[in-house]
Each structure stands twice: as structure tokens, then as C-alpha cells.
Specification:
flavin adenine dinucleotide binding; 9 strands; flavoprotein; acyl-CoA dehydrogenase activity; 15% strand; AcylCoA_DH/oxidase_NM_dom_sf; two-stranded antiparallel sheet; FAD; 3 domains; alpha+beta; Butyryl-CoA Dehydrogenase, subunit A, domain 2; Butyryl-Coa Dehydrogenase, subunit A, domain 1; 5-stranded mixed β-barrel; globular; Butyryl-CoA Dehydrogenase, subunit A, domain 3
């Protein structure tokens, strides 16, 4: 296992950081999160054109850049650092990964080029009321006498669900897990924006009533395995965002402790403040270590494909490390965000300061795949505890 980033990867991080610092400063984040889409569409398109952001992890044959998942993690870490509101997670990670792993070359050729360019936004609808597990998908898919597919049921907490141009939907067809593509304007599809704590990331409820859909891939165990892999990659992606955000919280706190003067001294000189900042750093580095291990496992597993020997590098580790990295990183993120608010004193509790935005992202990210207790039970089962 190589824990060092290559020179090219470091250059990617530097270029993305420069671009995001200009495109996603505090005023830009606040302006974007109150727009109709929850982000500045013009800035998103410009970043995609200048940096190839949306196509980083998409294969070159489908219009992407063709980088590994490690480069995607680097991008997510940098986006999390500045809280960049965008469709990247839902479109370029979740939906794009679902298409790539579906094995449906026709669907990939039709949808992925637009996603890679950033001109098409997509999302993946997995969660249903009461369940966020791939194995418990219950939304119904049927086939008509004319060979057309129809969907009936509800998906909820779909990231960018009410905004995306294309929705990929996990459903049950004759008892088997299947993946379907549904256009945003499809008949029988009702999309409702959900009230959310984190205004930088929208979520929606999707109601399907005899909604026409296109089958993607082949129903059955292969599709279930592909969707489980997508879930694992999404967990690593959330961990990356969380580490980036937590890092920014620590930087803000240390910077403030150097300029805030109380009792004639910089507050950073007080032992109590030093200890709390040191604890923040330890939690951040613990989360970062878990993230980079998971990113390595994801890159190795992606290179090997879905049907690989469990003993192959990364194959067995990803299933365990993905949820472990996510729970570790989101817990650290929330702790650091709370400490940032506390150590900034009165100003940390105000709307004008950005600390509350990071706390809201940390809180919602931790719940994207259900309650923490359920996530830990899954980790324990995977670890054989």
C-alpha cells in the first residue's frame, strides 16, 4: 500500500484548490445555496470546462478524464474544504458509478458524456421510507405487454432528486434488483423538495406512478452487487468531503486563536485552548488515515472490477473500510465543527460566520445512510464481531 500521493495527484489538488478558492468563497456559497438549484450553474459549467471536474472518474471512452477513484477523493476533499455546493456527489460519483458498473454499454454511451461535461446532472435513487439498504429495495417495476417498463413506489432523501435531469432508480423486477433510468419530465413522476438542515445540499422525495423507465443492465445479483459497490464508493466520497470540511474547521479555529486577544493575551496561548486544538488535530488525522486507506481500497477494487477474488488487494477491505471511514470522518467532522463554534465564542454562533454551515453539513452527511447505530452494526457484522 502506497500512502504517498504522486506528483500528478498533488498538482491536481493544487489546481482544484486554486479554482475552488475563487469559485466557492463564503459569499459564493451563501449565494448559491439559496438559488433554485442550490448551486451556481454557471460556475459549475465553468469548472467542468476548465478542470474536467465532472468527468474525473468517468472512463475516457465515455468522454471522461479517466482518473482513478483516488483523484475523485482528492477532488471531494477539496470541495468539502470550501463547502462547494454542486451536483458532483450525486451526478459524477453516484449516478456515473452506477452506470459504469451496470455493464450496459449503450446506456453508458448515451448518458455518461453529458454527465462528464457537466451539461447533464443525474442522481441515484436508492433510499426508501424506512430503509436505505440495497437488499431491501421494494419499489416495484413491471413490464407491459408491449415490453415497456413502469415504476410504482416512493424514493426519499434522494440527493438532488428534485433537480437532476436524469434519475437512476433501484427497483424490484420479478423479485430481482434492477436499475432503471427515468427522465426528469417522465409522466407519473412527482418530485418534491424536502426541507433540509444543510442548505448546501438538496434532497428530494420521488413518487412514481406508472412511470415509464428504461432498464439499465441486467436484473439480478450482478446489479445488486454493482449498487452495493456504488454505495461503498459513496461512503468513501462522504468521508472525503468530511475530512476536507473538518480540516477547514481546524484551520479556522487555529487562525482565530492567534488573532483573538483576551486578558491581554492571544487565546491560543492558553493551555485549555491548546489542548482542545490538539484534540481536534488528532481526530482529524485519525479520520484522514481511515479515508486514505478506504480510498486505496476503492482504487484497487475498482481496478480489479466486481467479480474478483476476495483476497485480491482492496477487494475485501473496501466493504469494511468504506462505512468505517465514513462513520469515523463524519463523527470527527461534527466534533470539529462544534468545537469551532465554541472556540470562536459569541461570533461562532452567528449566521454571518461560516461555522454553522460546516456543522450542518457534518450533521446531515452522517445520516445519509441511516442512523449511526445502524451503520456501526453493519461495520461489526462485516468485521465478524
Amino acid at each position: 500500500m502506497d500512502v504517498e500521493f504522486s506528483e500528478e495527484q498533488q498538482e491536481i489538488r493544487s489546481a482544484l484548490r486554486d479554482a475552488l478558492d475563487k469559485a466557492s468563497d463564503s459569499p459564493a456559497v451563501r449565494a448559491g445555496m439559496v438559488t433554485e438549484h442550490g448551486y451556481d450553474a454557471a460556475v459549475w459549467r465553468r469548472l467542468c470546462e476548465q478542470t474536467g471536474l465532472a468527468g474525473l472518474g468517468i472512463p475516457e471512452e465515455y468522454g471522461g478524464v479517466g482518473f482513478s477513484f483516488t483523484e475523485v477523493v482528492i477532488a471531494l476533499e477539496e470541495m468539502g474544504r470550501v463547502l462547494y455546493p454542486s451536483p458532483f456527489l450525486a451526478s459524477a460519483v453516484m449516478a456515473a458509478s452506477a452506470l459504469v458498473h451496470s455493464g450496459d454499454e449503450a446506456a453508458c454511451a448515451e448518458y455518461l458524456p453529458g454527465i462528464a461535461e457537466g451539461t447533464t446532472t443525474a442522481t441515484l435513487a436508492l433510499a426508501e421510507p424506512g430503509s436505505r439498504d440495497v437488499a431491501e429495495v421494494s419499489l416495484s417495476a413491471t413490464v407491459t405487454s408491449a415490453g415497456e417498463y413502469r415504476l410504482d413506489g416512493v424514493k426519499t432523501h434522494v440527493i438532488d432528486g428534485a433537480l437532476a435531469d436524469l434519475v437512476l432508480v433501484a427497483a424490484r423486477l420479478d423479485g430481482e434488483v434492477a436499475l432503471f433510468a427515468v427522465a426528469a419530465d417522465a409522466a407519473g413522476l412527482t418530485r418534491t423538495q424536502l426541507p433540509v438542515l444543510d442548505q448546501t445540499r438538496r434532497q428530494g422525495r420521488l413518487d412514481f406512478a406508472d412511470t415509464p423507465a428504461r432498464l439499465v443492465g441486467t436484473p439480478g445479483a450482478a446489479t445488486a452487487a454493482a449498487l452495493e459497490r456504488v454505495r461503498q464508493l459513496t461512503e468513501v466520497a462522504i468521508a472525503a468531503e468530511s475530512v476536507g470540511g473538518a480540516n477547514r474547521c481546524l484551520d479556522m479555529t487555529v487562525e482565530y486563536s492567534k488573532i483573538r486577544v483576551q486578558f491581554g493575551r492571544q487565546i491560543g496561548s492558553f493551555q485549555g485552548i491548546k489542548h482542545r486544538c490538539a484534540d481536534m488535530y488528532v481526530q482529524l488525522e485519525t479520520a484522514r488515515s481511515a479515508l486514505y486507506y478506504a480510498a486505496w481500497a476503492a482504487t484497487e477494487a475498482e481496478a480489479a472490477g466486481l467479480d474478483v477474488d476476495p483476497a485480491a488487494p482492496g477487494a475485501g477491505e473496501l466493504a469494511l473500510m468504506a462505512p468505517l471511514a465514513m462513520t469515523t470522518a463524519t463523527a470527527a467532522y461534527r466534533h470539529l465543527a462544534e468545537e469551532t463554534i465554541q472556540l470562536h465564542g459569541g461570533v461562532g454562533f452567528t449566521w454571518e460566520h461560516d461555522a454553522h454551515l460546516y456543522l450542518k453539513r457534518a450533521t446531515t452527511s452522517a445520516l445519509l445512510f441511516g442512523q449511526r447505530t445502524l451503520q456501526r452494526e453493519r461495520i461489526a457484522a462485516l468485521a465478524g464481531i
